Amino acid sequence: MTTNHSRIVGRLVALAVPMGVFLALSACTVEDGPTGLLIRQNQYMESGPNDSCTVPATATAKQRSEGILDVTVPAMGWNGYLFYPLVENQLGPFTGLAGGASSPAEEKNTIVLKGFSVSLSVEGDDTFAWPSDCSGRFDYPVLTQHIPPGGTASAIVELIRPCNAIALFNVLDAQYPAGPVASPLKVKAEIRAKGRLGSGDIQSPPFDFVVTICYGCLQRGYSDPSAVAFEFPKVAMCSDLISNPYLGDPCNPAQDSKILCCADSSDADGHVTAIRCPAVPTGKITTQH
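The structure assignment produced for this chain is given below.
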């Protein structure tokens, strides 16, 4: 993961650059190299009893350098992979004429973040093709955010959309019952942040991120004794659980962290139904007298 792009552009614009030069810089889109807009890192999200799906707008101490998507979880909840970019405006403040500081409303080097472009490719598989109605190249809009010079902002991006995840699931599912031990797929994503600077467009250099696509891997390898009996493909009944030590990612249970699921009921054939991910235990602690 690239996090050390040059800050040259920000330093140049921070100088007393004539207004005409600023307009020339902002009237075009730089396709590659330093632009002043940078995806600094993928924020690290952890689950806990009080965690919510809120991505910090400042850098987390840890960053996630690669991802995991368990495509057997989608049938139980949201499917796809979420990316949590921290986007940085590397431009310096535009001080205006005679060195007078601009007000925030007048700051010319504020970048307006509008969205992201994504390009997906499956590594090591020249035969794989995305469905005609689900391209591996797409734009993902986000709520507009104004990033002042030197500032940062966070977002949530559907890096692998549900339709992409289904296509990947079909490949691994065809290998089942060897699926849990089959070689996983690797999807390389190239992401760019996109926005506006003055009257023109701006986009970041590409940020590369690899997601391992697996079949049941986040529902196996439990170390907690209360969960080891329910490793994939088994599913616990919610009524048999009194706790859940594996809550998964706080925004998407199908990715990155161990997840324990449970079922509320089963049908006449013994197949579990109404599956909850993460598991919501409904069992009761019994006390022996």
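Interim note for the steering committee: The chain is about 10% helix and 30% strand. The helical segments are 8-14, 19-26, 162-173.
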